[in-house]
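Supplementary Note 3. Input sequence used for the single-chain structure prediction.
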Amino acid sequence: MANKTKSNSNMPNGHLHELFVDELRDILGAEKQLLKGLKKMATKAEGESLKAAFEEHRMQTEEHVERLKKVFAFVNLSPRGKTCKAMEGLLNEADEIMESFEDAAVLDAALISAAQKVEHYEIASYGCLVTYANLMEHREAAELLSQTLEEEKNTDVKLTEIAMQEANMAM
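The predicted structure, written as discrete structure tokens, is reproduced below.
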């Protein structure tokens, strides 16, 4: 276990600092990885509303990256991401789905399934980060992270609506 550094020894719940930083780096890497994945999913999607949802979320993801850079600044760190193994796996699975169902009528439903797995990972990650930020009294960081968390939840709801109204329905 690492020793407390000067930067975290005087803050409330400073024992969470290293975990918070590691999770921030992980989600920054994940968001950057997702930008490429969303572009690919938007290209493969058949339905116009699903294509639009992927494009909209890609633009939101760009905002998430910028917001994360601000969070790093609030905690006096340089915004450095790391390869997110979970996102890497989720995007690899999305690639397999796109190849397996490339010409099938079920492609959009499969893409939504893959995208919702990504959203649920992001929701869990941002939920933890908001909790850690609040416990360490990083108010500005918690506010920015909460905003992103709500957007991730909204995207998940939107994907469910598209699935139930279009992609999962027999035409």
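Residues 107-135 form the longest helix (29 residues). Residues 1-7 have pLDDT under 50 and may be disordered.
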